[in-house]
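WARN no homologs supplied; continuing
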Amino acid sequence: MSAFEPALSSDTVAHILHLYATRGDDHYGEDVSQREHAEQCAYHAHMDGAGDNLIIAALLHDIGHLLHKFGEDAADRGIDTKHERIGSGWLARHLPPSVTEPIALHVSAKRYLATVNPEYLEGLSAASLQSFILQGGIMDAEEIAEFQAHPAHQAALDLRRYDEMGKIIGADMPTFASYEPMIRALMVTGAR
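OK structure emitted
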């Protein structure tokens, strides 16, 4: 077990719910909390007609922020927490690749979109722009080709779109806990 990783409870879904109940008010530079952001992203995925796997990927894509020990001000201190790797790696023991691969790629999706679309880059929030620079910034041709070749790249692009939409202060959304049955169903079918 690495330093950022809490011990698993006997019920992983309860552990996930506990993380968002106890640390979900953290902000990591955005004006909405981690829980609000997760709820909004999942809602937008649902409204877009995404399948359960992508809805839960949208819900949990930033769980790495709740698992690492760098603190809310990591980006201000120049630290790329690699939250996408931490979160997808932790979840991969419990959820199928159709959930975890878009999570693993959502930072690369941001870098890709910023590289191929300057308007996207200009529209990033201040916090997202700060992390973009720490995460590697503009992609080179090899990174673009590698991202485009990944089977989950389109799901990651969709997830990125939901991510950008999930930053509205005071939005009324279904609660994080309301997704518990969907997470449990995926864990049963995705168990390894």
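Residues 97-116 form the longest helix (20 residues).
OK
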